[in-house]
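Quick one, tokens below. Sequence please?
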């Protein structure tokens, strides 16, 4: 399986990685974002969505738990659903909300705080680990499926030096 690590020196580096990931997206992809508060999970998602063509505001779905966005991948309209599970008190809330149905071959699902739905959340194709390091961030991307592997194979990103 593909694996990628980099040091992102600043916010622009995080935005550049988000833009590079946007160019590597595929329908059905499930991405789990890991990191402490302030590690850059929402910033990465915002950059990805804007680079994928979303022109409106991208807010953290902390209180709504999920926020859908429509983008074009080639000639195909695709929904990107951004989940923020931080405020969930149990994995059952994920099931009760009907979120499992969003994880299918058509949508792209990006999940912040996936550990909050451990045991009921569908497995990721790609895990992204963000860690604050000085003024920047360390990032690690790990593919765990063939779809995640092909995403990383398409990823064209040179971290800012």
């Amino acid at each position: 399986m593909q694996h990628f690590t980099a040091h992102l020196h600043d916010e622009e580096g995080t935005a550049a990685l988000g833009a590079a990931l946007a160019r590597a997206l595929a329908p059905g992809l499930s991405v789990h974002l890991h990191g402490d508060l302030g590690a850059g999970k929402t910033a990465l998602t915002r950059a990805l969505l804007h680079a994928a063509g979303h022109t409106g505001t991208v807010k953290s779905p902390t209180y709504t738990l999920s926020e859908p966005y429509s983008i074009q991948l080639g000639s195909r309209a695709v929904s990107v659903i951004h989940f923020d599970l931080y405020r969930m008190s149990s994995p059952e809330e994920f099931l009760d909300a009907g979120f499992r149905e969003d994880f299918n071959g058509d949508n792209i699902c990006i999940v912040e705080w996936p550990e909050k739905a451990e045991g009921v959340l569908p497995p990721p194709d790609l895990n992204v680990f963000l860690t604050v390091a000085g003024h920047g961030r360390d990032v690690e991307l790990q593919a765990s499926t063939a779809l995640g592997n092909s995403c990383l194979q398409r990823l064209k990103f040179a971290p800012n030096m």
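The chain has a mean pLDDT of 90. Residues 11-22 form the longest helix (12 residues).
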